[in-house]
Design brief:
By secondary structure, this protein is an alpha/beta fold. 41% of the residues lie in helices and 19% in strands. A 7-stranded parallel beta sheet has the order 4-3-2-1-5-6-7, with helices on both faces. Helix 1 packs parallel to helix 2 and helix 3 crosses helix 4.
Length: 160
């Protein structure tokens, strides 16, 4: 039986509050016994989530955009080297059982919409008023908002 894989997506140039949210989220994912999947790079939300998961003894997977491991987070256990650039966003969400998005960026928004289109449940944290309005306008029963990590994890448990 395969383990639950939880994707955490977010900007590579994360703001401090996005970074700390992602780190706490990674830790809680590991504590739940879930596998963490990120974009794998040593930057922003993906690095923070991987670091939090490793601190809690979790297993981390990083789906890298390039054709080598040179920009990989040191907290990634299993690198997936794709060489497909931003197209890896689709790999990220299709490989996840549920997706969290911390913060806003063009890549993050693409992952949220790809996930919802693929029928995945998405829980968003640290959204701006503009991004929240944009995503709410889709009226999707697969896009959810959480104000903090505890509420996000609780919602994930309900959805899984």
């Amino acid at each position: 039986m395969s383990r639950i894989i939880i994707g955490v997506m977010g900007p590579g140039n994360a703001a401090p509050e996005e970074y700390s949210t992602a780190e706490e989220l990674g830790k809680k994912i590991a504590e739940a016994g879930w596998v963490l999947l990120t974009g794998g790079r040593n930057a922003g939300v993906m690095s923070a989530a991987s670091h939090g998961a490793k601190q809690a003894g979790g297993l981390t997977v990083g789906v890298l955009p390039g054709d080598d491991r040179s920009d990989m987070s040191p907290d990634v256990d299993i690198p997936v080297v794709t060489g497909i650039g931003s197209a890896r966003n689709n790999v990220n969400v299709l490989s996840s059982d549920l997706v969290f998005a911390c913060g806003v960026g063009m890549g993050t928004i693409s992952e949220v919409l790809l996930a919802a289109k693929a029928g995945k449940q998405v829980i968003l944290l640290n959204q701006t008023p503009a991004s929240k309005k944009f995503l709410e306008d889709f009226n999707s029963d697969r896009i959810h908002f959480a104000s903090g990590v505890s509420g996000a994890i609780q919602k994930a448990r309900q959805l899984l």
